[in-house]
Amino acid sequence: MFRQHALRSTAARRYATASSGPQARATVPNYDLFKQRLDRARATVLENKPLTLAQKILYAHLHDVSSMTSAPVPGETYLKLSPDRVAMQDASAQMAILQFMLSGMKQTAVPTSIHCDHLVEAYEGADKDVARSWQTSREIYEFLQAASQKYGIAFWKPGSGIIHQLVLENYAAPGTLMLGTDSHTPNAGGLGMLAIGVGGADAVDAMASIPWELKAPRVLGVRLSGSLHPWGSPKDVILALAGKLTVRGGTGYIVEYFGEGVESLSCTGMATICNMGAEVGATTSVFPYTPSMARYLRATQRAPIATAADAQQASYLSADEQVTQSPETYYDEIVDIDLSSLEPGYNGPFTPDLYTPRSLMTDTVGREQWSDKVSAALIGSCTNSSYQDLSRAASLARQASERGLKVAEGTEFLVSPGSEQIRATMERDGIQQAFESIGAKVLANACGPCIGQWNRDENPVVKNRETNSIVSSFNRNFRARNDGNPNTMNFLTSPEMVLSAALSGRLSFNPLADTLTDSTGKEFKLQPPTGDELPKDGYAQGRDEYKPLLDHQPAMEIPIAPTSARLQTLEAFVPWNGQEFFNTRVLITVQGKCTTDHISAAGKWLKYKGHLENLSRNTLIGAANAAMDGQVNLVRNSIEGLEPAQGTIPDVALAYKTANVPWLVIADYNYGEGSAREHAAMQPRFLGCNMVIARSFARIHETNLKKQGVLPLVFARPDEDYFIFAKDPHELVVQTQGVKDINEHNPVVTLLVERIRDGNVIETYSVECRHTMSADQIGWFKAGSALNLIASQQGATAST
């Protein structure tokens, strides 16, 4: 499969955008090639059946349709695809680059970009925080910059902006396929791109000319009707949808929006909706091409793409006419949302699918005894940092400022622009001044508090772990994610509602009905927000220092110091020995929600993303133990005499690794939801985990486990067999039946479980499980990891 020279020579035919070096912005997609591929697929395996937009884009990116013998079956068939582009943020790019370095490639096969947005900690504000990040993370930035220069990757420095906003402004193009090493990569669906979040090893596939595998998704159609009322926001669409679908309701689906309501939305508004589609577990989300997308492309210096896309609108960049006329026949599921009746919403706390409409929020705050006082109000993140978002919120700030009003006492108000372009335009057009006039602190063009990069340690609510409420326009609100305080309740909402909460200082405040008091003691109501879809005077380009570095130097040396605490060259994982797993211990039976934040925490741990050994010290520290009344990061050691007898999960896992004792994890539903971080798979593998058995998996995490040689299994009877492992799992010893002969045609693997107490077997169980691995994925497992397989195939090619 991995034949570097042969694949490089055919890259222009395989990929619509073969890399010729780093790019400042996307070029016009090869729509003729997409049409050829799609026509070939329609005429053969698809039997000329009408297609949704998502299906069109997927099948136009099939790597080799001639190798397919039948139509793809959603949920069963693995598609081999040729992505057009890869985008990576600095935290995940470290491990991806370390893996790509072992591929032997001279440069990336497709255009690739790295965006430094995750390592900037919000503290003093904007430029000071960026400067401090250079002090604390210079080693990482220099590593990523050198790798970018060596492999022909566009490098965006810290302070240039958030990956998803920069992709939307520069690289997204309708009808193309992109992989991004961040779960919110689907943001680009607002520009008609099929953009999918993956782990670093998946990104390496595309960067190294290897077909990328995706299980054929189902398509969930969301029919939008009407138009938003003045207080309504595109954010309210996805908040309501998350409330309907829950965090796992979209798993295995692409969410495709359609209906007359689509035409009323701005491009950046549609991006907001697609961005947070990650929170329902969807593979990605996408909108059909609309005039607002064309306007945005032209406003961001991509008029040639708009012109080409205009010509493709009917034939390629929207669902087939039969689908539009009879959507119930062609979508696997349909959800209806009437924009006209949609209220502003709040989702939270602690999960992004707990939806409360504004009209019920005041009563719900009292009934649930949520902290009404808002300790911080935050606008920004990759979800809501567009010009339209900020201009609408600024209109409310101006109303308050004109009446002598500032943010409520005890409420911190923080704003994170999405990019240097947005920041410069915001400053030029008076938006920044409007925010600052009421007491805002403008942060760097980076992720900041959204991902836990928020120095709030001196705030009493964090220092004393007090229960408090924050209101944000972010996309994710897992416990302790934002400031490290497990008692901080983050309510996700629109920028307009965040601004209202900042002024009132109360979660229960309803700007549609309640009044504020101005500096003279007079009560007044906020008028509905207003703003511009695009800046009337065009976008300001910002400072030159934040433009991308486009400097391909193939001879560049990549610095990794042997003594570094932050970067470590990778060593290959040990290949599978071809036998059943024996004497495997249950490290933990995880109770309830276990996201990738729980498995591999971010925040202060982000600095170790390039050093697997050091990062492994945070493995599963957020996981609750079902056998110990839900206690977090505490397990019993099953090996008598091995220390610690009881300890943290990383400590016991390391003890098992040192003693050559294999171990596994038992997990609840939707294990691994949230961020795309592959570290959540690599860390357990590094510490000796051979299997994860779950009631169900989140898509990206299940793939990441497969990539790293960990066997992911699901219970055949999840509501029964999970509980076998919930009682004293340290007494259980597991061996497998079916791993030795594992193949893609027989998904069954049986666990033979013994409960041993005082040296005696007191109970035995036979637990049927199932795997979902394709033939290629079984190859990864047998080799010990996907990277091992690539390396072995490259070695075989080099020797011939």
From TrEMBL:
Biological processes annotated in GO: tricarboxylic acid cycle
Every Aconitase A/isopropylmalate dehydratase small subunit swivel domain range: 586-717
GO CC annotations, alphabetized: cytosol; mitochondrion
One GO MF term: 4 iron, 4 sulfur cluster binding
Enzyme class: lyase
The UniProt record lists the keyword Metal-binding: yes
Main location: mitochondrion
Region (Disordered): 1-23
Comment on bound cofactor: Binds 1 [4Fe-4S] cluster per subunit.
Record InterPro entries: Acnase/IPM_dHydase_lsu_aba_1/3, Acoase/IPM_deHydtase_lsu_aba, Aconitase/3IPM_dehydase_swvl, Aconitase/IPM_isomerase, Aconitase_4Fe-4S_BS, Aconitase_4Fe-4S_dom, Aconitase_dom2, Aconitase_mito-like
Keywords, ordered alphabetically: Iron, Iron-sulfur, Lyase, Metal-binding, Mitochondrion, Transit peptide
Cellular localisation: Mitochondrion
SUPFAM superfamilies from the UniProt entry: Aconitase iron-sulfur domain (SSF53732), LeuD/IlvD-like (SSF52016)
Domain of life: Eukaryota
Residue ranges of every copy of the Aconitase/3-isopropylmalate dehydratase large subunit alpha/beta/alpha domain listed in the record: 56-505
tRNA-binding recorded as keyword: no
Family, as annotated: Belongs to the aconitase/IPM isomerase family.
NCBIfam families the UniProt entry points to: aconitase_mito, PRK07229.1
PANTHER family linked to this entry: ACONITATE HYDRATASE B, HOMOCITRATE DEHYDRATASE, MITOCHONDRIAL
Name by which UniProt lists this protein: Aconitate hydratase, mitochondrial
Protein encoded by which gene: ACO2
